[in-house]
From TrEMBL:
Keywords associated with the record: Membrane, Transmembrane, Transmembrane helix
Residue ranges crossing the lipid bilayer per the database entry: 20-41, 144-165
Domain of life: Bacteria
Naturally occurring in which organism (per UniProt): Aquimarina rubra
Protein's UniProt name: DUF3592 domain-containing protein
Amino acid sequence: MRNRKTNLKTIWQRAKIRPILLLSAFQGITFSLLLFLPLTLMMNSFKSSFPYVENVEKIESSGTNESAVLTEIEPIENVTINGNNPTILTYKFDLNGQIIHSRFSVFDPIKIKNLKIGDVIPIKQLNGNSIVLGFEQYSFSMDFMKYIAGAAMLVGLVFFCLLFLRIKKEIDLYKMGKLKEGKIISINQNKGFTFSKFGSSMDVYYEYDVNGTKEIGKSRTNNFALTNNKTIGDTVRILVSEDGKNSCLYPELIAKMNHWKEN
């Protein structure tokens, strides 16, 4: 049973002759990570600057109305929206004889102008957690950046999957393919990137016999020595799957480096 040896270098060699897929996958995944990680740190920094009340909807529906005394009005200096800052309202209220101090983040510049320290404001509380009535809670959000990072990651993963599937097919042939001969019918050059030889390769088209039926195969290689020794009509060694549907060129250099047995 054939089980030829391959390694990570072999996989990299097969990946780099598909530069568009490789770089698209790398750029998509890298961009999303470079965007997401600093974004997460920045959001955590912003969120630590102001309070956030969980379960606002539950407090609105099940909480009890109370009156509170406004003790501080503090703008959030590191966040500016259209020239205005969100505000932290600090207040205290009596809950069963105990004074509770709470903070609530809002963004409503017009209403805030009408408030002053010492004002009695309406609140709603549930189990000690409270919200200020008449104001929506302000929470720092960069969801649109998350969507951009997510979209970039998705694009990168799609290209990665396409690259993986193409490489896997070849690696499977390297490991288990039957060694046969094919006849070259066409050779097309792929120049790669304009200012670099990275990605340069050739697409070799050939025909081979499968149980008396002629099949057409295509394989990409960066072994440019092939064109020095072979031309259209010449035979070339190939690896063919058991069902004969998939094939690729026999990788002479990889075979020698990994000490393959020619079977």
